[in-house]
Amino acid sequence: MAISQDSDTANDSKRPRLDLREEALNRTIWSLSLPAILSNLMFTAVFFCDTLIVGWLRDENCLAATVLVGPMMWLINAPFHALGDAATSLVSRCWGERDFHGARRCGGQSMCLAFLLTSAFLVICWPPAYHIIRWLGGADLVVAIGGHYLRVVLLSIVLGLPMIVATAVIRGTGDAITPMILTTIMNVVNVGASILLAFGAGPIPAFGLIGVAWGTVIARSLGGALSIAVLIFSPKATGLTLRDLVVFSRGPFARVWRLTYPAMLDRLLSSFAHLAFIRMVAVLGTTVLAAHNIALHVESLAFMPAAGISVAVATIVGQAIGAHRAHIADLTVTRTLWWSSLLMGVLGALFVLFAPQFVVIFGATPEVLRLAGLALQVSALELPFLALYMLLAGSLRGAGDTRSPLFASLAGIFLFRLGATYLFAIVFGWGLAGVWLATALDWAARTLCLWWVFRRGVWKLIHEREKEEERARSD
After folding, report:
1. pLDDT band at residue 3, thresholds of 50, 70 and 90?
2. Which residue has the higher pLDDT, 466 or 124?
3. Which of 127, 143, 171, 453 fits a 20 to 30 Å CA distance from 61?
4. pTM beyond cutoff 0.90
């Protein structure tokens, strides 16, 4: 990793600092991006492998159950990704200023909020699990399977969701290697345990779909425990104590919350909209729903490079702003936008040419595979816009602007994600192709909104305004 060391104290000398010189910027970007890309690819690979495992069960009801449970879990995960965005922004900006005490306080309060939200979601979502699957449009057999599956997977959130925030705190310090290692361990355990428990071996019976769920619980619990241990014991991390993780502090907590709630509304709004979106897809039938799920998993692997780069950009922008080097933040975003546009354009061309070959490994029925291939070909339209949106949103959040992505999401969701999907897929009768065309329009609209915000440059002033407000409150 491209870092320089500050030797003021023995502890500070162990803490990484990004090299923000312009001549080293490419190296800094890739030193953060490559581990983040690998982490995201491995994280997505788990869902990809789970879909493969469920596909090998040769039961469309099981596959449909995972399709319906997936959006619900994304909904539950959404606030924690938002909290992670806020934690990365705050910790990275403190790190850029060499304010390690502030980074520790912000990181600790982020974890406190993570544990509180985890408890709330477990209490709220466990009792109505079967009703949730029915509301999402599952048939009776899908409800029976999906409700049980959802309840088991919910156990994984106890430590799995705080892990999202913990790794975000670690990344904010400029350490992208440790989250990659943690993700690797978790994913290897997840795939191995899911296969073993789904199909059985020796004295271990085959649990089918529920075995896949228990594999998730085991892996995410292990990953969460390890990530918390890193926050406390690693000399390169923020140096949190157990007290920091469980005791609220009014000032830092308010700072975390002010940055978190717009991002949380953004994520929750997108997740609720996705649930309604999946409900419209479910109206088109179980076969279409299964094909949509397969196409989503393949596409998710394609945009993981851009997602990883956006994570790196958020950290660099945050540390650059904290170090009063806004021109480096601007240059970082501009360069990565060009790189990602080129990469996603190439991947889109591959989808158009080879979509049927990409989906055949799922082993589903011929009609499911045909529709999944068609959806992938249409998805080539949205890949460049999706990548640009991720980068712009990540850079703005890294600088402390979590409201602009929220407003862009509002416009995209209601005008295109829901409205155009209903019009194209149901009214015009274009089916799954109409669904994916509507999502392409959604990402294009969001990207244009955030590009306008980015070019205005107001995001460069947010950090100083926050510091001035803090000084005014302390006076």
Report:
1. very low
2. 124
3. 127
4. no
